[in-house]
Design goal:
nine-stranded mixed β-sheet, five-stranded antiparallel β-sheet, 41% helix, alpha/beta, binds zinc ion
Length: 587
């Protein structure tokens, strides 16, 4: 009998016994999860177990954490090293520490215990499942030592769930092979970087071209019928449907392969790999779908090198602005010249020809790492995107009077920074009062400020986002009215320059429902959330019905950061969800 069937059919006592050792000395977790049976999948069981822990008392959670042995207790200094064990030194092997590493671990362990009062928990097999290096373990220890105690307790619990996940996989003999392939592709692609130390892959650099070439080679290996790099540098792979090369509609999908500076490996690229793996398996099975699949690796989304937002997806929807070709990067190179240097034609006509005819497409779907903490905090691997937030951005300046900090009485000041401070607090309260609305002042500066001078000027930025244009505009109107009121009351004046306005892109209901059906079919609970970040789907929205699927990011969901992380198990689920969507797409 399959392990999952055994679990579903067992008595509570047998269920607990079968799961013995999944969670360290804590049978109460399995006991409580038993009531949630039957589990449709192993993923459903994992989510149910995590939910029990999330809903337990803080004392129970701490008891679970304290049931684990100290990581540093497992460490040992390497003895006489054979040639073989020297080779393994770069792998985890905490038993093969150098004396320095051993001392460092003991020191971190003592500091950690003093700060938190519970042992440091880390799933040392890591997101790939093969083991973190000792350097990675020590770096994680150092980073987490600085965390807030409540957040650190939550992170320990998530690490415990990861340990349990790996143990469950071992019990079932489950290998998330497609997730592992995705992870390995991401690691391989991250070797191409503009920067020696971190992953940076900006538009039309040699690293960027190398990534495009590698993607094309992998797409060919996967069995795509047509693979090419288009005039704007997008990598396009087409897998024909039963109707062949020219007839029938296609499903468009994909995401971007450029990155921010000091990026993570999965932002964008995950959404290219997922459909590639599905095509690989279709090809291996010798199968065609009733429609074609067109996977686009968008060459530019992050707007890092040239001031031209979403230039790649803009080209695909016919919104590429010819004036962008003359725009320059920090080194004064025009976009057209950068394109030519990267082997692209750099011609507006060729780019305009990339516009897709919506009549030939069913819609656009995109899989993307969440880039936020929501799914990670809920212990859910996948989330359904309801809308990509609309935004408005401004840069502004409040002008008061710079005067002597000692001699100007409090009632006679015109303090520009205090006025902006009031605006920030209003923005925070106003945004928090409405679900799925966010407001941020991310830049704040008192030009030429001094410790003994009342701020005469204060520059700031404003970033307002919401799931609907109406909610965004209401927030925008209230924040601007408040700024006006603050300045009048405080005897200040202000300037406010709009720098960006983007409309919200709500998911198409039928396509969102397809993602929901896919997630449900995997046995996972549905969690719907807006996307606070912009994505290629936001541009494609102007041409085609679209919907996105989010994948949980590890390390609290951090993104645009080398700590960005996805487990192979979550990647596997994303591939399965995509596969379900296309297999159940009846055209
Ligand atoms: Zn992205």
């Amino acid at each position: 009998m399959h392990f999952l069937d055994q679990l579903n059919a067992a008595s509570v006592a047998d269920f607990v016994a079968l799961l013995d050792g999944t969670y360290e000395h804590s049978p109460w977790i399995a006991e409580r999860a038993a009531a949630a049976r039957p589990f449709a999948s192993l993923a459903a069981l994992k989510v149910a177990l995590a939910r029990v822990v999330r809903e337990a008392t803080v004392d129970e959670q701490l008891g679970l954490i304290r049931a684990h042995p100290e990581l540093a207790g497992k460490a040992a200094v390497a003895g006489e090293l054979t040639a073989e064990s020297t080779n393994e030194q770069s792998k985890a092997g905490l038993t093969a520490c150098t004396p320095e590493e051993f001392a460092k671990l003991q020191e971190l362990n003592a500091a950690y215990n003093a700060r938190f009062g519970f042992p440091f928990i880390l799933a040392v097999r890591g997101p790939r499942g093969l083991g973190l290096t000792r350097q990675e373990i020590i770096a994680t220890f150092e980073r987490r030592l600085r965390a807030h105690p409540d957040l650190e307790r939550a992170e320990c619990l998530r690490q415990i769930h990861r340990i349990a996940e790996i143990r469950l996989n071992d019990k079932c003999g489950l290998q998330p092979a497609r997730g592992q392939q995705l992870w390995d592709w991401a690691a391989e692609l991250a070797r191409h970087s503009d920067d020696a130390e971190f992953l940076t892959c900006t538009y039309a650099t040699p690293a960027h071209t190398a990534v495009a070439e590698q993607l094309m080679a992998w797409m060919r290996d996967c069995g795509f019928d047509d693979v090419h790099r288009d005039a704007v540098g997008n990598v396009v792979g087409v897998y024909h449907g039963t109707a062949g090369a020219t007839a029938g509609q296609r499903l468009l999908t994909g995401s971007h392969f450029d990155t921010v500076r000091r990026a993570g490996r999965f932002d964008g690229r995950l959404g290219i790999f997922v459909p590639m793996l599905v095509v690989r398996d279709l090809h291996r099975a010798g199968r065609r779908l009733p429609f074609g699949l067109e996977v686009v690796g968008f060459s530019e989304e992050e707007c890092q090198r040239f001031p031209a937002d979403f230039l790649a997806s803009s080209a695909v929807i016919g919104a590429f602005d010819a004036d962008w070709l003359a725009r320059t990067d920090a080194a004064g190179i025009t976009l057209a010249d950068a394109m030519r240097a990267a082997g692209l034609p750099g011609s507006n006509d060729a780019i305009q020809a990339l516009r897709r005819d919506p009549a030939h497409y069913l819609g656009f779907v995109e899989v993307h790492i969440e880039q936020g903490p929501v799914l990670d905090s809920l212990d859910l691997p996948l989330g359904i995107v309801t809308s990509i937030n609309g935004s408005r951005r401004y840069t502004g300046e409040v002008i008061g009077l710079a005067s002597h900090a000692g001699t100007t009485p409090m009632g006679q000041r015109r303090d520009a920074a205090a006025g902006v401070a009031e605006l920030i607090l209003f923005c925070e309260q106003r945004a928090a009062a409405v679900p799925d609305v966010v407001g941020t002042v991310g830049m704040l500066e008192v030009p030429s400020g001094s410790i003994n001078v009342i701020p005469g000027r204060c520059r700031f930025s404003l970033d307002l986002r919401a799931t609907t244009d109406a909610a965004r505009d209401a927030l925008d109107a209230d924040v601007r009215a408040k700024l006006d009121e603050i300045c009048q009351r405080r005897g200040l004046s202000f300037t406010l320059q709009p720098t960006l306005a983007a409309n919200a892109a709500p998911s198409h209901p039928a396509w969102q429902a397809r993602w929901e059906a896919a997630v449900t079919a995997l046995g996972l609970p549905l969690h719907r959330l807006p996307s606070g970040a912009g994505h290629d789907a936001m541009k494609l929205h102007e041409l085609l019905p679209q919907a996105m699927l989010f994948v949980r990011g590890g390390n609290g969901g951090i993104s645009h950061n080398p700590l960005e992380s996805v487990t192979v198990d979550d990647a596997e689920l994303a591939v399965a969800a995509f596969e379900h969507l296309i297999e159940n797409l009846h055209v």
